[in-house]
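Data deposition worksheet. Section B asks for the primary sequence of the deposited chain exactly as it was used as input, without tags or linkers unless they were present during the calculation. Section C holds the resulting structure in token form. Section D is free text for depositor observations; keep each observation to a single sentence. Incomplete worksheets are returned to the depositor.
Section A, Depositor: J.P.
Section B:
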Amino acid sequence: MTSARTVLVTGGAGGIGRAIAAAFHATGDQVVIADVHGVEDAATELGVRGVTLDITDDESISRALDEVGRIDVLVNNAGLLAIHGRLLDLPAADMLRILQVNVQGTFLMTQQVARRMIDGGVRGVVVNLSSIGGRQPTPGMGGYESSKAAVDALTRWAAIELAENGIRVNAVAPGPVLTPMLAMGLPEGSPAREAWLSRIPLRQLAPVEQVAAAVVFLAGDDAAHITGTSLPVDGGQLLV
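Section C:
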């Protein structure tokens, strides 16, 4: 790579976002993390730039992108995972909130950044964070999983339309990721963790570094002929 790229990572104050930002930073790229809360502290810890941004608000996105300037790589990592419920129980307002953040937010970010890439002649890259849940249902998580199936479709839509501008769009689809928050909720040796591990042929949850490595790969020159794909990082969970 001849020169440092500017990489914008949404949801950069969280566990997966921090790992992605750190991985790009380690390659020499100029990294900007964006989040609704906690951006300044996270950016200081990582040694990168930070901007406050609400991915569901067009004006907030526009202001933040003006502040960032040229973007070569967009990582749509921000998302909402905390709301769960079975089909017959999930409140309609909760389902709408999931779709607003995970689908509409990804759409708005991709749309605004891609417009600026095209206007600036930037042959850029977009990497979305999806989930194998979009292809493998888990009872009680269908709202989230439906939103990630939509993210996979949005990835293919953006890839086919932006290819003429030299912009590649892909997704990384993890299984359960061992973030600090997940590790607290699923302690090692607990029945809940064992239940998840029993679904994974490789018998381990995905380290955040492995998810980050997949994102960095899809954004790099070694993946220059890959677009429109959703790459599972799931220890083989989709096989069973």
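Section D:
The chain has a mean pLDDT of 96.
Residues 53 and 64 are 6 Å apart (CA to CA).
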